[in-house]
Amino acid sequence: DGGITQSPKYLFRKEGQNVTLSCEQNLNHDAMYWYRQDPGQGLRLIYYSQIVNDFQKGDIAEGYSVSREKKESFPLTVTSAQKNPTAFYLCASSTPGQRNTEAFFGQGTRLTVV
Amino acid sequence: AQSVSQHNHHVILSEAASLELGCNYSYGGTVNLFWYVQYPGQHLQLLLKYFSGDPLVKGIKGFESEFIKSKFSFNLRKPSVQWSDTAEYFCAVRPGGYQKVTFGIGTKLQVIP
User: Fold this and answer.
1) What is the C-alpha to C-alpha distance for residues A109 and B49, in angstroms, rounded to an integer?
2) Which among A6, A71, B22, B55 is most buried, taking Cβ atoms within 10 Å?
3) Is the model more confident about B43 or about A71?
4) What does the pLDDT look like over A65-94, one tens digit per residue?
């Protein structure tokens, strides 16, 4: 089945450690996104990528890094510089350009810093 | 930068009541508009979308929305809610030709049987 797979579903990290969240899609979508969801704040865009080897900062990129070496994959690294990393992280993908479609979302990864 | 405002953060309705959730956006050009729903414990799902054409959009599960360009609004409506509509609803906007999708803060709907 086509879709977006995020792993792991739950992740625990010690303070001061970097951690990488996985996002893989088999929808052949060019654009991919990372959002952070916090209660009362909705979804905030961290990074997005319109094509392989290209990505742009979203609204809250500080303390995060991404790579886009393959079309199917868009991993997000939460670094120790992120002041408040405990959150629910959502990955999404869509087709870009004039053939507009909606974004499809993965199941999310809940990161807890302990 | 574009922004999205959802005015109702928490709505409580009885079953069979009518629903209208407000959504306004700030962007002067062509936009794509979306409503997503997140049921408890589930991932975000698309309810409906507007790209062009008829401003009255029908979505899944009896939801609809009307794009009013002059008011920069895209409110979500349902004539009669059910207990199973209990969820969080997000409005989102994407300027035409761009990839950045901006979401509102969400509205939690609780339907009481």
Assistant:
1) 26
2) A6
3) A71
4) 999 999 999 999 999 989 899 999 999 998
In A1-108, the DSSP E strands lie at 4-7, 10-13, 19-25, 31-38, 42-51, 54-57, 64-66, 76-78, 87-94, 104-105
Round to whole Å and give the CA distance between A53 and A69.
Answer: 6
| pLDDT on residue B41 | 84
Q: What are the pLDDT digits (tens) for B66-77?
A: 999 999 999 999
Q: How many inter-chain contacts (A to B, CB under 8 Å) are there? A: 54
- The reply to whether A42 touches chain B by the CB within 8 Å rule is yes
Distance, CA of A81 to CA of B72 (rounded, Å): 38
